[in-house]
Amino acid sequence: xxxxxxxxxxxxxxxxxxxxxxxxxxxxxxxxxxxxxxxxxxxxxxxxxxxxxxxxxxxxxxxxxxxxxxxxxxxxxxxxxxxxxxxxxxxxxxxxxxxxxxxxxxxxxxxxxxxxxxxxxxxxxxxxxxxxxxxxxxxxxxxxxxxxxxxxxxxxxxxxxxxxxxxxxxxxxxxxxxxxxxxxxxxxxxxxxxxxxxxxxxxxxxxxxxxxxxxxxxxxxxxxxxxxxxxx
Length: 232
Hints:
CATH class: Alpha Beta
Distance between the termini: 27 Å
Number of helices: 9
Number of strands: 9
Strand order of the largest sheet: 2-3-4-5-6-7-8-9
């Protein structure tokens, strides 16, 4: 397995075409196994979220892309830049707009974006924020499965909340959960939820952590970190 350290992929790419087209700038962050630094993919982090662009425009603005179109374009941009700069860690994870899960065109737009970039859907993991999943209740996993049927991997972004019930179907659906361990208590996330997810093979990926936190995180079932910080 490829070995990598956090600083290895701290890359910010400024692409003239992307800026001209008002596309976000991306920073690629490695996801690493805390125990030994082995690579477990990378995350393409955008400097602006779809929701931020909506706040700046009127909803009737026909030139503004839908959440589905934004997701497809983000997948295309991330995959193309990763290819051009030789960043080959997989899966390549992307954060979906909150509205993408409610947009029936989301799966098709995501697949089209991957096709334009020449990347297989299986190389992409789309992370849906917990708020969008829990808001759709019983319909949520059906919508998530629509992306899986097109070959995409899917994850849950629980950094700000984790209200999505982790029943049997959810545990079979999501392959990864992103979280901030320092906020688990404030968000009232029960430790049993982490234990159940870990026991079913879901990769728990921590943000805002140091390498020295490895042992403490392992006790919680968290074995992966996104750009772990060097110990001071």
